[in-house]
Amino acid sequence: MIVAKNITKSFSRLKALDEMSVTFSKGECIALLGPNGCGKTTLIKTILGMVVPDSGTIEFDHEPIAGQWLYRNRIGYMPQIGRYPENMTIANVFEMMKDIRKGSCKQLDEDLMESFELKALMHKKMHTLSGGTRQKVSACLSFLFNPDVLILDEPTAGLDPVSSEKLKEKIIMQKEKGKLILITSHVLSELDDLVTEVFYMQDGKRVFSKKILELKEETGEERLSKAVAKMMVLSNEQKHDKSYTF
Ligand SMILES: Nc1ncnc2c1ncn2[C@@H]1O[C@H](COP(=O)(O)OP(=O)(O)OP(=O)(O)O)[C@@H](O)[C@H]1O
């Protein structure tokens, strides 16, 4: 569904993405992992067309995305930090988004708005919201237009535990519907029941990408955090052994 080939993106002398290639398929829930500053958000933004790569190509459903924008109607994006017109109420923001996306979605998905009880807060202005409520607005907007692809950048950061669980349940339901979900999180324990694949990056490059079953089998670990940690140790140990392919 999304295929990126040899994507490079530099900011001055820093290579945020270095010849990065990825294939993300329908029905997968992929954890995009790696240390701070390794290029996860930059990769997401190149897929969304918000950052233009210096070289390389990205295809969405076999069509190059360069110069295109309609494909974005099929993606729900929850940014790490949602930025909105601060003087608007939550209701204004939703109306604005519905207006922008007019006609691109027949049936709105308002499940999360209900489970987060957001409707009671609709009159509040964005600049008055707590960090968690702002995060809930971003989550609701990303699911609202029933997208085929969900890109969620640190979705549970700032959410209380009950709201986090509600969001996780919603993500699992979308995965079961066969959607493609890309998710970044530094709290690996939250990803345990969610992800089907792990894509681990460092310094703008892929270190390994593995299906979750394969990862658990190879490391002998059940929990994602332990499996990823062990994979990193194996990766370092095997760096000079060319017979071992990640
Ligand atoms: N617009 C920009 N201008 C200059 N440098 C940038 C810009 N965007 C990203 N970078 C740099 O590119 C590198 C990758 O950043 P990116 O946000 O993709 O990392 P990340 O893996 O998402 O990090 P985190 O886990 O902290 O969210 C970082 O060194 C960052 O400072």
From TrEMBL:
PROSITE patterns: ABC_TRANSPORTER_2. GO terms for molecular function: ATP binding; ATP hydrolysis activity. Coiled coil: none annotated. Gene3D superfamilies: P-loop containing nucleotide triphosphate hydrolases. It holds the Pfam family ABC_tran. Residues 2-228 form the ABC transporter domain. InterPro entries: AAA+_ATPase (IPR003593), ABC_transporter-like_ATP-bd (IPR003439), ABC_transporter_ATP-binding (IPR050763), P-loop_NTPase (IPR027417). Keywords: ATP-binding, Nodulation, Nucleotide-binding, Transport. Belongs to the ABC transporter superfamily. This is Cu-processing system ATP-binding protein. It comes from Pedobacter steynii.
